[in-house]
Amino acid sequence: MMQRAGEIACFLENTRWANATRRPVAGDASARRYDRLIDQDGSTAILMDAPPDTGEDVRPFITIANHLRAIGLSAPEILHQDPRAGLLLIEDFGDALFADLIAHDPAQEIPLYRAAADVLIHLRSASDPDLPVCDAEWLVDMIAPLFDWYAQDVDAAAQAAFIAEFRSFADRAVTGDPVLILRDYHAQNLLLLPDHKGVKRVGLLDFQDALIGPAAYDLVSILQDARRAVSPEIEDEIIAYMLAATGDDPAIFQTSYAILGLQRNLRILGIFARLCLRDGKAQYVDMIPRVWGYVQRNLAHPDLAALSVVLTPLLPEPTPSFLEHLKRQCPHKPIP
What we know:
Layout: H1 2-12, E1 21-25, E2 33-38, E3 44-49, H2 59-70, E4 78-82, E5 87-91, H3 98-104, H4 109-124, H5 136-141, H6 144-150, H7 156-173, E6 179-181, E7 190-192, E8 202-204, E9 211-213, H8 217-223, H9 232-246, H10 250-277, H11 288-299, H12 305-311, H13 320-328
Antiparallel strand pairs: 1-2, 2-3, 3-5, 4-5, 6-9, 7-8
Helix pairs in contact: 4-8, 4-9, 6-10, 7-10, 7-12, 8-10, 10-11
Domain Aminoglycoside phosphotransferase: 23-241
Pfam families: APH
InterPro entries: Aminoglycoside_PTrfase, Kinase-like_dom_sf
């Protein structure tokens, strides 16, 4: 810790922020840490601390942030950087998170979600950076945490049977022209920037894992949000808003949406179990029932009936006793 503090001091030494006050900002599930720096005149910036020895790499964040700004969206400006040390000083977008605004005033939910959909519509017409592709094989491979951490008692043969069945559906999820997908596109990574207009009113965060992939992916991410409940009625309304703007075939889009929703939420079940069992972050267990609900919502789509038959017997239901069992196995503190 002392060595890292020295690296940060050196990083800030030749900037206006060397003597700024530092206050922690809530982070995410990764090893990244964030501090708000407050200068004597009240100006602020955000320090991103992403230690390379924990597997973090800030270079994708820099690349995607620059691209998003170039195509007319609001990503933080990079004020100072040392990629080798895993340190960035970035523009501060404030604290007006969509999740907090909606919690304070539920009437803002639809306007804010429409604004988020407008960003995704804008991405349809913009150029794409050179990034890896979220294709059918990627979708299949990324389900692995489900069986590694959440449904650990499923034998290899049953896993293989489900994967084979899912593989036949994955191709249907990646139809249409691929777009830039930000992947962690949800209400705690979006901020309202009231001094901006149009799509620039939406401040974007946590996009370093972006890929090129199916257009429905980020809409699933925000409408099937593991961190806050989104009602089926709101979900349907925003999907309809998106379809009216894009002209996509509703049946094809909604089948892709349901397959992607299933894939994404199965992966999240595994990741949340891993965050508890491996990393000592038991709080993520409390969100598992909501994710389970999204899984069931997607399996109810008529086109996913065959998947439901294969998958349903394999998934442990997140009963209170099952969740308590996960928490009892949680280490007392995170493993470095």
